[in-house]
Amino acid sequence: MIGTTASLVGSFSTNLLTERGLSLNTVKSYQYDLSAFRRYLEENGLVASEVEAPHVESYLLRLMDSGRSPASSRRALSCIRHFFKYLVMQGVIDRSPAVNVQAPRKWRRLPSFLSSREVETLLEAPDMTSPHGLRNKAMLEMMYATGMRVSEICDLKTAQVDFEGAFLRCAGKGSKQRLIPFGTVALSWANEYLSRARPLLLKGKTSAFLFVSRLGKNLTRQFVWKIIKRYGAECEIEKTIYPHILRHSFATHLLENGADLLSLKMMLGHSDLSTTQIYTHITKERLKGLHTKFHPRH
Q1: Which of 82, 173, 200, 214 pairs with 97 at a CA distance of 20 to 30 A?
Q2: Which of 48, 79, 106 is the last residue of a domain?
Q3: Active site residue 244
Q4: Of these residues, 85, 109, 157, 173, which one is catalytic?
Q5: What span, in angstroms and rounded, lies between the C-alpha atoms of 32 and 26?
Q6: Do 100 and 123 lie in a common domain?
């Protein structure tokens, strides 16, 4: 049995009612969590059979990022695990990508982030001689410089950017506004893109959005996912590459270089400091790793 993600979710829901005999309220709860997960997959151009563990981990981080409690995130993970177990039983997939994903309360580090060298390699991947490549270069630089979510970078409008002050006004989850500085490197590439590439992409059209497609529209999350994944493959980066990894890398590198947690919370747009604190686990683990590797008396 192979079908669309929506049809697979539908057959799973039917199975819960008829085969497992769960209550209607329980099934509705499963349907709610799976509908949200299905939308996430569709936004990123994925189908259920393509999902890997980092995709599930990224989704759970997104839930926590949006203010969902650890208990609610654990419930969502339980639902996802049951769904993929069902797909294994139906022969749709060979193994569940969620089986080894830990619940948020057990997380000790982020699922994945890039080293400074890996970030540099990824940011050098676009072909800056083409309008599309120059746009992608400016966009990736802006994503790493600000830690913006992929949906935020897609919806970013030119009017939200202060090119003189090198900061932007970001409309995040729940329409909450925050100011984010982005530095001289991202500013330089944004100006290059605006002068050399954006007019060629627009071809006389007008658009309020900063980063535009060849049709003059704003980019989609699926498109950004695909180009970042392609650049990661071209650079032969062994980690699974997805848009949120630049946000993770942004936060990790700021903390490693001395940024305080409250400032990072403001730039990331977190509503709760405990969500930002997940990044401190990375720096602690990296420091322990460095000590183990290099200290003569470890």
Answers
A1: 173
A2: 106
A3: yes
A4: 173
A5: 10
A6: no
